[in-house]
Design goal:
Transferase(Phosphotransferase), domain 1; Phosphorylase Kinase, domain 1; alpha+beta; about 280 residues; 8 helices; 6-stranded antiparallel sheet; 2 domains
Amino acid sequence: MTQPLLTGAWEVPRLWGGRYRLERLLGAGGMGAVYCARDLLQEQLGDPYADVALKILNDELAHAPDANALLFNEFALMRQVRHPNLVHLYSFGIDPEHDRGFIVMELLRGPTLDRVLCERPLGLPLHELQEIGLPLLSVLAHAHQHGVLHGDIKPGNVLLSEQGVRLFDFGLGQSEAGQLQGLASLSRTRFNAWTPGYAAPELRHGGPLTRQAELTAWVAYCMNWQRANRPSIRAYPHCRSIRLSARRTKSPGTCQVNSGRRCKRRSSRTLSSER
């Protein structure tokens, strides 16, 4: 019998959906954790590329009655977009033994943008910002054309992989009115569902998520991290925690996902909002 992985206070089962064996934790954020996993079916059939990434909700959120529906919302939003600069999805499943949903994604190697920025305190030159910022703008425009809002544009949700820039983590995302009706979505009124330094002023004051708010986050990234405008690292205390964690858990060539601690559970009520 395989031993479970210990993530925080929760012993995560090793086998999911009778097919995916968790190998190691890649990173954890405020809502979920992402693991490197082995697809045992593909391995059995001789596939040399049987490694995948598996996203599972945190134990706190997983006990909510609509947790699986909320995770499926993230999967449906990303499936609706499909873009070269978006992390590619494989499938969504619910493990019958544990009654918990999971998302299967491609496994990519490379650092998240927040880690790169923290390791380069003077900021990035303009040409490097363009190489990252323009693909982000492209995937945002494509998502908006399909009526999808990401909900949390920030460097921690951008992966600089060997295959190029990839946006991920639509956990705070939602569809615009008239799009993908019937899906659950996170109730943004019950959470501080934004990241300081990148959220538009209207979001910080309880306003709705809009295309304009997402573009504000993109502009904030470009302005904040251009070498000439680089802010003091004191304004971004998470950089220090990233550096400390990197010293303890650094794994060269492996994606370390950091979604940020931006949500806290509020009692055992449902997490989604009515549409």
